């Protein structure tokens, strides 16, 4: 069974700092990997989707990379802002199932 | 569009009672997903539908859980009988494909 791990579980950074969130998965046979954001008391919002054939995707200040062979993905956030404070989850799609990591709780301090 | 609508937003019930959670997907979306989120287990996919047909229910924990989608605009997740370990936030999501999911606000279920 696919296992998805996110490290660190929590991260606190000062505003303006660049940061990297990590996601690792145990089985490289994936269709794609997706990064989500979850605000307290709310559902998930999709940020970036990387297909298994892709190496990275960018959206604004966000850049996600994928190294399928090593079972790793990173989410890079440039010039962090207080509004980026949320929990970030990665999800691996194996074709007929989704496996989510437990998330990294990010706090950006003004 | 109002987005995915879930009801109720909060549900408190006693062990052994039947619980029904409801979801109205975004119009035009032909995929619907039910998830459960707990502190211990994180977010788990329970079941998903395509064109009202269940495609994969391997995440449904046990026979006490059942899900239906009688039409394109409505789905239910039922727990009968409920147990304290079912306490969680249940999310419904809809999309035009498995990779485009729009999540509802969730239903927080507490079973006493």
What does this structure look like?
The complex is a heterodimer of chains A (110) and B (112). Chain A has 110 residues and is mainly beta. Chain A has strands spanning 4-7, 10-14, 19-25, 32-38, 44-51, 56-59, 62-67, 72-77, 86-93, 98-100, 104-109. In chain A, the strands form two sheets. In chain A, strands 2, 4, 5, 9, 10 and 11 form a six-stranded mixed sheet that branches. In chain A, strands 1-3-8-7-6 form a five-stranded antiparallel sheet, with no helix packed on it. Chain A starts with a strand and ends with a strand. With 112 residues, chain B is mostly beta strands. Chain B has strands spanning 5-7, 10-13, 19-24, 31-38, 42-50, 53-56, 65-71, 74-79, 88-97, 100-103, 107-111. In chain B, strands 2, 4, 5, 6, 9, 10 and 11 form a seven-stranded mixed sheet that branches. Chain B has a four-stranded antiparallel sheet with strand order 1-3-8-7, with no helix packed on it. In chain B, a hairpin with a 3-residue loop joins β4 and β5 (42-50). Chain B starts with a strand and ends with a strand.
> What coarse outline of chain B follows from CA principal-axis ratios?
globular
Proportion in β-strands of chain B: over 45%
Quaternary state of the chains: heterodimer
Number of helical stretches of at least 4 residues of chain B: 0
- Helical residues, percent of chain B: under 10%
Strand content of chain A is over 45%
Helix/strand/pairing class of chain A, anyone?
A: mainly beta
Query: Ends of chain A: how far apart?
Result: 41 Å
Radius of gyration of chain A: 13 Å
Residue-averaged pLDDT of chain A, rounded?
94
Largest sheet of chain B, in brief, is: 7 strands, mixed
> Helices and strands of chain A, in N-to-C order?
EEEEEEEEEEE
Which structural class should the secondary elements of chain B be placed in?
Answer: mainly beta
Instruction: Count the beta strands of chain B.
Output: 11
The rounded Rg of chain B comes to: 13 Å
**Uncertain regions spanning at least 5 consecutive residues of chain A:** none
Q: How many individual β-strands of chain A?
A: 11
Which chain pair shows the most residues in contact?
A: A-B, 19 and 19 residues
Backbone shape of chain A: globular
> Quick check: average pLDDT of chain B?
94
């Amino acid at each position: 069974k696919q296992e998805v791990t996110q490290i660190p579980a929590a991260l606190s950074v000062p505003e303006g700092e660049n940061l990297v969130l990590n996601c690792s998965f145990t089985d490289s046979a994936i269709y794609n990997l997706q990064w989500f954001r979850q605000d307290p008391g709310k559902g998930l919002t999709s940020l970036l989707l990387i297909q298994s054939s892709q190496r990275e995707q960018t959206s604004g200040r966000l850049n996600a990379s994928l190294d399928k062979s090593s079972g790793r993905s990173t989410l890079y956030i440039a010039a962090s802002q207080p509004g980026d404070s949320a929990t970030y989850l990665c999800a691996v799609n194996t074709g007929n199932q989704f496996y989510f990591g437990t998330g990294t709780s990010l706090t950006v301090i003004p | 569009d109002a987005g995915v609508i879930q009801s109720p937003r909060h549900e408190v019930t006693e062990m052994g009672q039947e619980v029904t959670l409801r979801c109205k997907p975004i119009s035009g979306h032909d995929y619907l997903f039910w998830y459960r989120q707990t502190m211990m287990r994180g977010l788990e996919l329970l079941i998903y539908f395509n064109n009202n047909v269940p495609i994969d229910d391997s995440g449904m924990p046990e026979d006490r859980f059942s899900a239906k989608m009688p039409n394109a605009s409505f789905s239910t997740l039922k727990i009968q009988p409920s147990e304290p370990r079912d306490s969680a936030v249940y999310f419904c999501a809809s999309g035009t494909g498995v990779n485009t999911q729009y999540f509802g606000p969730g239903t927080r279920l507490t079973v006493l």
